[in-house]
Amino acid sequence: MGDAFNDDECDYLFKAVLIGDSGVGKSNLLSRFSRNEFRLDSKPTIGVEFAYKNIRVGDKLIKAQIWDTAGQERFRAITSSYYRGALGAMLVYDLTRRATFDNLRKWLEELRRFANTDMVIVLVGNKSDLVDKREVEEKEGRNLAEKEGLCFMETSALENVNVEEAYLEMVTKIFEITSHKNV
Ligand code: GDP
């Protein structure tokens, strides 16, 4: 099946990537999802990191392999191999920093240059717990998502709001596309 394949315990394995500006919360969205942890420290390491999580969609067990840039975006050092084979992307901005929202255009261009054409992209406005610091309204995120054909969700990695839901939405959509192709 190309990019999604069977292994012993699960029916499918999907690769998905996290992208977005530095500091938007990518690594915390990953650790919250995969280990239910939140990290207040910043990352000491540079180099791609990834985590696995099993998700049940209907009667299928799907193993999601989620890649994190681990800080490489700071040096604009993400290469095409990061995106290779990825069926989904979580494109993250920080709703308390407008610049991270403005930069989405650049990230979308990069995704469309390197990634699969039918990649499932979930636009994620993170840090919804910081209500007094909000610089990007929810409807701005929603409008952009509609215009670009993306899924959309606001999350808080800190308070564990909508994190599971965002990944679930991505994995379910990937599953729908992949199983449809295999018919
Ligand atoms: P990355 O560079 O995109 O991987 O971002 P990190 O996950 O390292 O997070 C950057 C900073 O934002 C850290 O200080 C985190 O503690 C903080 N952070 C991440 N997610 C949230 C969130 O949902 N709410 C709040 N208040 N802070 C967050």
UniProtKB/TrEMBL annotation:
GO cellular component labels: endomembrane system
Family according to the record: Belongs to the small GTPase superfamily. Rab family.
GO molecular function: GTP binding; GTPase activity
Protein's cellular compartments: Endomembrane system
Membrane topology field: Lipid-anchor
Residues of the full protein shown: 1 to 183 of 218
Keyword line: GTP-binding, Lipoprotein, Membrane, Nucleotide-binding, Prenylation
Protein name: Ras-related protein RABA6a
Native organism taxonomy: Eukaryota, Viridiplantae, Streptophyta, Embryophyta, Tracheophyta
Main localization (coarse): membrane
